[in-house]
Amino acid sequence: xxxxxxRVGAFWRGLGxxxxxxxxxxxxxxRVMAKVWAYFDAAGPxxxxxxxxxxxxxxxxxLAVLRGFGVRAFTSMIYPHKPGMAQxxxxxxxxxxxxxxDCLRTATFFPEEAAAAYVRDELAxxxxxxxAHVQVGAYDPADALLDPVWGPVAEAGVPVVVHCGSGPxxxxxxxxxxxxxxxxxxxxxxxxxAHMGMPEYADFLDLAQRYPGVHLDTTMAFTDFSExxxxxxxxxxxxxxxxxDRVLFGSDFPNIPYGYAHALEALTPLELGEEWLRGVCYGxxxxxxxx
Length: 291
Hints:
The protein is α/β, with parallel strands linked by helices. The chain has helices at about 10-15, 30-40, 60-70, 85-100, 115-125, 135, 145-155, 175-185, 200-210, 225, 235-240, 260-265, 275-290; strands at about 20, 70-75, 105, 105-110, 130-135, 160-165, 190-195, 215, 245-250.
């Protein structure tokens, strides 16, 4: 057990919730996960600092841990870093969701000619959420090759968790400007900005105020680990309250360098109230995903 694991259940029970919904968890093919962990172990250039993996467990053990925490629904965030990879990952994720009923079926895409067809197939087959990783994929989310993807995704109302902030290190296409261009073309998109858009928190809050389909997930935000290098501005707490129905709990499990409880307990010092916490930890995602 990691430090504080025994406190997770007490946290959500204390709020009167039936459990938690975690919109940002990673389940991947074993060899892909092994490569991801090796990258973190080496503190690769997209990591930028020492990053021990707290829940380095076999898949069945990770599932048991999440369920033991009381997580009622979660995702299998997958992401390609090159053409020709997304469709294979989607096949694995569909099989994983079929044998894991509490997982929201997840898919991904990459700017390539085949994207329009395989995203259309995923929508027809009932995908619940997409993952887009602008930093790892090193692509412009407004790339013309993705135009036939974003339109149908927006029309279907399927949320997309997108890592587009410049944390932990900037990428060629990270930051608010590419997402602003994308939303100008597809304003009905339901985007979930991963990590609250860290470190460009204020800019992504601006986009959430401008576009009603923009949500933000709390993944790694507000934790001691992130506050050291990318503190959330205290002056923006009021907007967190105003947008409380579009803030969703995410953890980055299992790839976090601290115990799961800390991701939850780091929300309390924001002093936004129990109703806000109930929405973030369960109600908002339950409504968005129909859980």
